[in-house]
Amino acid sequence: MRVEEGFQQASYSTEHPYTADPVLPGLLKRILPEKVFEADLLRLGDRLVNEIRPLAPLVHPATLIQYDEFGRRVDHLHTSEGWRKIEEFAIQEGYNAPAYERKHGEHSRTFQFVRTMLMTGDCHVVSIATVHIMQEDAELIELYGTDAMKRELVPRFLSRDPSTAYLSGQWMTERPGGSDVSRTETHATPAERLPTDLVHSAGSLARCLTIARAYAGVRAVEGGRTLLKDVPLHVANLAGVALLYRGLVHVVFGAVRLLGRSECGVASKAEEARLRLLTPAIKGYAALRATEGMEEAMTALGGLGYMEETGIGRLIRDAMVEKIWEGTVTVCALDLVRAATKDPQGVQHYVEWAKCVIASVPSSLKQQLWKPLDMLSAALAKLPSAFTESAANPLLPRLALDFFASLSCALYLLEHAAWSYGTAEPTQEEDVEAFRRWVSEGNLAKTEGEIEGVRRAGSWRETLNSRLVYGSGDVSSKL
Ligand SMILES: Cc1cc2nc3c(=O)[nH]c(=O)nc-3n(C[C@H](O)[C@H](O)[C@H](O)COP(=O)(O)OP(=O)(O)OC[C@H]3O[C@@H](n4cnc5c(N)ncnc54)[C@H](O)[C@@H]3O)c2cc1C
User: Fold this and answer.
1) What is the whole-number distance in angstroms between the Cα of residue 107 and the centre of ligand 1?
2) Does ligand 1 have an atom closer than 6 angstroms to the CB of 353?
3) Is this model's pTM higher than 0.85 or not?
4) Would you call 56 exposed, middle or buried from its count of C-beta atoms within 10 A (0-12, 13-18, 19+)?
5) What is the CATH architecture assignment of 351-465?
6) Distance CA 466, CA 68 (A)
7) Residue range 18-45: mean pLDDT, rounded
8) Cβ–ligand 1 contact at 184 (below 6 Å)
9) What is the mean pLDDT of the chain?
């Protein structure tokens, strides 16, 4: 039978990344004073669906030609047509600019991050050069650059004109190490040209979830009688991914709001301290957990998920870099513990904020949620000692990061659920359920148990870890 014959799987349609998102519209409704960004997000989403998504088949890996036929060093970087068009789109859209133009005051960061989130899934690796790195360089220059740098470079980093915009890069990581920069060999010298190309990307859990959701609407099982979207077990798997996405989005935007306040000089000391703790924790935790959800989304498409054309494989590969660059998850954990032990008052501020979030829950909702709220309060009480013990026990920092980040997700989900319930939002039931599941069925309790296990085992666990990895003793003695 020819491939054109027999059963043909219907393809799934592409959803608007903002209106179809299960979390962002409700979150923005709560955290913004009015619907200031809505028109722009709708327009941006339309461009993504109609102009950018169709470019995917034209995006190919870049190639670097280092030498010409005479053995001369040329270093030509060839990028694909699709990639160049997406790069142009990203610059035109001012991927990065809103955060620095600050037209929306303390909400400018939220605006930039929500746009970035919408674009990430369809923009392949472009966002790394246009957002991630340029943003850091713009920030560096804003904080420490000379007047000439601020005048000449920052406007080009933020330009929406592809003919004048600069892309930038960082070359800090050297062979001796990226985590440990104490043996860095490079000396900075003025250069005539700025680097113009990098190829990197972060993946997008949102995009994978969208694809899995759309596919469930067209794939029939059980003799072709039932669509996957109507199979409870399949939907339960997707609900797990959706819950993870929800937790990550709420905690990320919790920190983004603090960043926006900090940059506008309106953050309190307590908010600055919370931002300091959340930054490495969320970076590490989101990197770690997002790929888990993306893998689940891939399997939700069965064999099709494995096909390169769906884009999920690429998104997972790109997301993996987040676990490594700018601090591996372990390095983020060490930074978190360092920040927490250096500023115990900051941890106290966090605990007080958390107690306020719990206290803000309407009493009728408290009755409904008494069990997860008790669990949350008990976990919160253990937080300061989890940090102090992590400074002394080399095996605890990674668990402390998981624990703190998971706790923070729970608190931000609760903040949203309390608001949603209080204002009788149409989504209140799922908002409340998301908090309940995160605490009662998520990995907060599991991480607490693991911390307890490491605590009890003491240094004997380190010995056993080494034996598990390297075996015990000399091989010849076992023969
Ligand atoms: C795709 C990609 C793009 C990148 N782009 C850039 C870029 O544009 N600019 C740039 O400057 N760099 C870039 N990097 C480099 C990146 O930032 C580093 O790879 C990263 O910081 C890790 O450093 P390393 O490679 O030296 O690993 P190492 O520091 O050697 O880490 C190896 C392992 O040791 C662990 N480890 C390290 N220190 C400790 C410790 N004290 N305790 C316990 N465990 C520890 C780490 O967790 C890791 O598992 C990029 C990396 C990748 C993969």
Assistant:
1) 32
2) no
3) yes
4) middle
5) Up-down Bundle (1.20)
6) 49
7) 93
8) no
9) 89
